[in-house]
Design a protein that fits this description.
Number of helices: 7
Shape: globular
Low-confidence stretches: none
Order of helices and strands: EEHEHEHEHHEEHEHEEEEEEEE
Mean pLDDT: 94
Structural class: alpha/beta
Helix content: 10-25%
Radius of gyration: 19 Å
Number of strands: 16
């Protein structure tokens, strides 16, 4: 049988012969708040309608080479704040899925890669760290610890001007830890920290915390949805990373141990958009896994072709997991909408993309490329 050189994978892939880089693991900084590391959205920005909430979500926005795509993505998100027809679904904040700055989480990169591009973004910005935010530049003349800059920007004890922001108007955020839960009237948003190595590392301490948070969030169902976020993508079909077996083993192990599943899982790390469905035999449960890492880094990651010998998809860990939709040639972002109805919470996820990978002119509008509606 001849290989189809034009066909891309419709399943997650495992990339063969990837060097082990777990030596890059970095200890997490001390929490700035108290266990179990909760931040109530109402204490930062009160929610006007307790039955509706919308927010943006995106990852991998920074870039050493050029911030052009990031600025266009931010500009499109700002437009959604300024919509002339008010629907109650105007986004209230941004939840960043990691890799705010490249390549080594240095304070010197935050003004150019974060504060300046987001100076017009009107809402609060929350974040979990990515591998690049957490790494350390071995050639830096300034000595620093992993996540020093990230915690100064996002995990402060009070909101104030960040010294290396270029005197930006955006103040520091008061997240209690690098892994933490954002409490909102319609959902508990659990954000994990998956460290520096290519496929991620989560400590036993954080795993115990995740078990605790899933149980606590589950106790608030059906009044609140449960959203789980991490930087490293468990499932992916891209050519640069592929799927993360450590993250799959972690999450599926916790889900099986507790019998508790989130309603949806978001990740970044891979520079494209992918939407997977994970079908669980017996229960009939279908869990969406969404990759949203096309937020601005200038190099996007294509989905692999089935003829590429470097990848395989015939692993038992991928049984029941299907790639429902992907966009690997355009930068973009998510808009997540939550609505409380008599039947429970409805989650709507919309992916908006810029017109083309290499088009950087202003004045173009992002288009709605994919939409998922969940009733939980």
């Amino acid at each position: 049988m001849k290989s189809d050189f034009s066909k891309k994978f419709s399943k997650p892939v495992f990339k063969r012969d990837v060097p082990d880089d777990t030596f890059k693991y970095q200890p997490a900084p001390k929490p700035s708040g108290k266990y179990p590391y909760h931040l109530d959205l109402e204490s930062v920005d009160p929610v006007p309608d307790q039955n509706k909430l919308a927010f943006h979500m995106v990852g991998d926005t920074g870039s050493i080479r050029t911030p052009d795509f990031q600025k266009l993505v931010v500009g499109e998100m700002v437009k959604q704040f300024e919509a002339t027809e008010r629907t109650g679904y105007e986004p209230q904040f941004l939840f960043h899925l990691g890799d705010v700055v490249y390549n080594f989480g240095e304070a010197s990169q935050y003004q150019r890669q974060f504060f300046e591009p987001y100076q017009q973004y009107p809402g609060p910005i929350f974040a979990i760290p990515g591998n690049h935010d957490s790494d350390i530049n071995p050639d830096s003349r300034v000595r620093y610890h992993s996540l020093d800059a990230f915690t100064a920007v996002f995990c402060d004890t009070e909101r104030r001007t960040v010294p290396f922001s270029g005197n930006a108007q955006r103040k520091s955020m008061v997240q209690p830890n690098v892994y933490w839960t954002l409490l909102t009237p319609l959902a508990n948003i659990i954000g994990m920290y998956s460290n520096v190595p290519k496929f991620g590392v989560v400590t036993d301490e954080q795993r115990d915390w995740l078990v605790h948070e899933l149980k606590r969030a589950d106790s608030e169902r059906p009044d609140k949805a449960v959203i789980l976020c991490l930087h490293h993508s468990p499932y992916s079909a891209d050519i640069n990373h592929g799927s993360s077996m450590p993250m799959i083993e972690l999450l599926e192990g916790v889900f099986e141990e507790t019998g508790i599943y989130p309603d949806i899982v978001f990740s970044g790390h891979v520079h494209n958009y992918q939407r997977f469905s994970r079908h669980y035999k017996g229960s009939g449960r279908v869990l969406p896994f969404i990759v949203a890492g096309s937020g601005g880094y200038d190099e996007l990651h294509p989905v692999a072709y089935t003829s590429d010998y470097r990848f395989r998809s015939d692993l038992p860990e991928f049984d029941g997991v299907n790639l429902e939709y992907s966009c690997d040639t355009k930068h973009g972002f998510l808009k997540v909408l939550l609505e409380r109805t008599a039947g429970g919470i409805t989650i709507t996820v919309e992916f908006y993309a810029l017109p083309h990978e290499r088009r950087t002119e202003p004045g173009v509008n992002a288009s709605l490329e994919d939409r998922l509606v969940l009733k939980v």
